[in-house]
Amino acid sequence: MAADNDSFSLEEFVDKLVAHVHAEQDSDEYPSMRGWEDIGRRALARSRRAPVPKFLYGPLTATDPEMETCTNVRDVNHAPDFARGDNPLGDDTKEKMWSIVLDFGAINIFRLMVHPNDFGQSVENLEILSCLFYEGLCGFHITENGEPIVEAHVPCAPQNLPDTSRARQMVFEFDVATWKNAIEVFEITHATMPDRRQYNNI
């Protein structure tokens, strides 16, 4: 039996090995587990290669798949960069929220941004509010009784803002559970921010 890569068949070799070692058994029967252990010990004694049970993971005639080269492409569909002025929701919506904060002077952050019937618009409202925080038009603090409050700041030119104000950011976790809990705790029955589906169609 030839042993080069083109003509050697592992399946044929195993069949001949079974027939030779267990000639007294029927051709349809494979040797017992003890017979395979004996074959393995004999082969291992004459081999310098570590035993690798590669053939157990698939057909004996399977060939290794060809390697394909590919390049990883980073996901460019990232969140908008507010430092560059990206605001997919528009300046009109941002001005609308800021005018509401100005009218109230100080308002509970959940009452400002939560839409009780639409979680998606609540998330968008939080995104708009983050723009106002970033531009220094709104501030955030927690009162003595633990209520989160948003208040309006007097607008000033960006060059007049201190560096600490520019770099200050706040991470706010907001998921469906938080949205439902805020509606229940603060008894929110209507949206402070107008429904965009209504005033966008005007």
Automatic annotation (TrEMBL):
Residues 107-192 form the Non-structural maintenance of chromosome element 4 C-terminal domain. One of its GO terms (biological process) is DNA repair. One of its GO terms (cellular component) is nucleus. It is found in: Nucleus. InterPro entries: Nse4/EID (IPR027786), Nse4_C (IPR014854). Transmembrane segments: none annotated. The keyword Nucleus applies. Keywords: DNA damage, DNA recombination, DNA repair, Nucleus. Component of the SMC5-SMC6 complex, that promotes sister chromatid alignment after DNA damage and facilitates double-stranded DNA breaks (DSBs) repair via homologous recombination between sister chromatids. Component of the SMC5-SMC6 complex. Belongs to the NSE4 family. This is Non-structural maintenance of chromosomes element 4.
